[in-house]
Amino acid sequence: MKSYKNKRDGFSLGLLLILLIFIGFGIWGYTKLNSPMFEKNSPKIELVKAQYWNSDKPMHIKISDDSGLKQIKAFLSDGKNRIKIADESFKNIKKSFDLKVDYPKIGLPNAKKLLKLTVYATDISKWNFLSGNAVKKESILTIDNQRPDVFSLITSYGITKGGSAIAIFKADDENLKELYIETNFGKKFYPTKFYKDGYYVVLVAWPLKEKRFSAKVIAIDKAENKTRSRLSFFLKNKKYRTSHLKAKESFINGKISDLAEDKPELTKDLSPTQKLDFINSKYREENDNLIRKVTTKVDSNKITNFDIKPFYPLRNGKVVGSFGDHRFYYYKDKNNTISEAYHLGLDLASIRMDDIRVTNPGVCVFANYNGIYGNNLIVYHGLGLYTLYGHCSTILVKRGDLINAGEAGARTGATGLALGDHLHLSMLVQGVFVRPAEWMDSKWIQTNITDVINSAKKMIDK
Question: Check: CATH 2.60.40.10 for 37-143?
Fold first, then answer.
């Protein structure tokens, strides 16, 4: 009996020992398999399924892995020939790598337009029986080494500081991706398709505060080939009026105080003169930024003509405020300037609550309250040209409405930063405030817009 008991105890002890060994191996295996050494994520290769490539320039492909890269290989194939273009092995841990792909000098004699790029990457993980995680990615490459063909056809003869001009040009590339006008002050103007395929028209503007103006057509294709072509204009400098305006107590405690209530969290602790500066600078900037945002869009459809009549929204309206007027506000003493701003429109006065008629047809893109502009109507007339009507007592249309020529869109008033009933008229070209006087002048429109468009069509037809 004693011998049997000893054997049974020995057997139980053996089973317990084996169980403990299995548990130990299980814990060890679980720990190892869930450690970074056994991570299961494959490397990432930033490569799209199809892309364009200027093979005169190297292509850069980013490859990364959480644990570290072990090996990278890449091949190019033209359907008949397959050559290795990269074979990188890493002794030290490298979690990311920029693979530079150059077009091979030999090995692809057919020089086909379409190539297949295949990239392999393996990491240093011990997963998959110590062989690591592997990934393969392929991309079909369209070879394009030709820059877009761009040339200027015709432009307005000149452009005035604060004013507008038109340009018509050709831009031809079957893989065209981006097309815009680049200016020396950072603003991009986007063109509209014109008349026949490959031709474009654009209105450009010289902002009031910019000392110089220059513009280039920039064309970029899908292979990142880039062409620049300068647009030539005769530059006409113009000096604008400077005014020194006394801020009266009634103005500060009236209009300024009322507008400050729009932003109580920012103005409650300001003095009366500080409120004036806040409204005239920061609040004005906020209002102008909203206007620029609303007025940056341009047509996507092809146009053939741009038949614009001179804008004059008020019958018998009298000019009472000039565009470009640099206004300095002082308090009590002329030497005590407390704020300044540029007047970016034309003020017209007629009878109280007079009809504001839209001279040229358009689409209402904004009909709402907008700070210093009060009740504000903005209408789009095509080719990036917008009209803005400020200080309205009533707006008669809503956003999205089509407005016919001669139809009343609003009525004059004294809302916003206005001391009396009048209309503030602004003209904008793709978000840039421009001189309304040009667009109210039939001769200027004929010479700088209509004649240029007609001449361009004749040149294209030849």
Answer: yes
